[in-house]
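Cont'd.
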Amino acid sequence: MAAEDLRESGDERPKIIASGDAKFVSPKTVALYGVLTALTAAITIMTVIPFPPTKGYFNLGEAMVFFSAFTFGWRAGLICGGVGSAAADLIIGFGMFAPTTLVAKGAEGLVAGVLGRIKGGKPWAYALGIACGGACMVTTYFLSEWLIMDYAFAVAVAEIPTNIAQVTIGGTVGTLLSHAVKRSMPSLAK
Amino acid sequence: MTGLLDLYSEKGSFLHRLDPRVKLLAVLLLSVLAFMLSELLPLVLLLAFILLLLALSKSSFGKAFFALKFVVRLMVLITLLWPLFDRSGTPVLFSIGPLDITEPAIWRGVTSAVRIGCFATVWYILMFTTQQRDLVRALVKLGLRFDYGLALSISFRFIPTFGLTIESIKDAQRARALELDKGSFIRRSKNYVSVLVPAVVSALRTADTLALTLQSRAYGAFRDRTYLREIRMRPSDYVALAVAVLALLLPALAKYVYGVPL
């Protein structure tokens, strides 16, 4: 049962079911997006790792954004990455970052999902997706902190290395995760 | 940690009774207001107003303390760092090596910190007084498609569940001698893969069951949906909406039309 069901939700395009003239996203997609979003938020909150070079912390939420994008396509990356990370911000009390996060991580998931799945996910495509998606995320945070939140320019610049480290590690872990999960659930691999 | 996964606390303040759409809009309007103001005094007044609202929301002391700790830390950091990197302005107070600490830069730092305080605390009004499901309802009423609204409700519902799942997987893997708190950050991140894989697999199984559940409850069978709980604007909601809009409009008018320095 499980194998057939998940193969459909692994499609890039959410299935639209129609009843009469009303159209809905199929229950499989709704459940998948809901669960991936929750998992992104939960992992963002639960996996905090100290990063000694800048005495900051980073989390592995990024890994889930890349995992969703690589495994389920850009729509999942956009929705689950953006909404899940923004929800995590709201829940742990960084509501001020939620709108920025929605845009930054959403864009990251979208770009990684589009580029990372070129030719069915070659290693160079993953690397390209991580690099370009990560660049979107880092730039959005930098611009928002500098221009909107009015951090000092230097403070906003100082955040960049932490963010780059987060993308690099998140991207690596996300790719490993995508492979490992596809191996243990062969129905996901195409 | 999972105990703090919801900032909401069940109290009976007027902010709790307010329509969630109005609260969401008010938070956005006040954020724009904080972005617009550039003088210290109006920003301090705004921060005081926001803190007053927070006090009126009767939220529990523990949660307020937990939340404000982050804000205060950020504000102190910004206040200290602005003068170090901004060397403009004339009255140089003192120099440390190549750094000149100037008076305008210090005020600039304080202003910036107060503005960030406003940005951060204004969201707590929403999060302290609104249940997550009301937030989703408000978004659906504001035009979010209900199927995406449902996905959002599902995700809010499952965040604490997955938090607990991850916690127990961590314990299980630690019992098998996985080290998550030792070694370099790269080593730790790699070790987390063996926590994340079971978490993701179990979550995908949950999604599978959930899809069946949705189907068996006739999700999407009828075009005209009805809702168990409707949210309706009451007169007091309109008053609050008007106050929020005026709070942005009047200062904007004063600043951009009459040139009052705000």
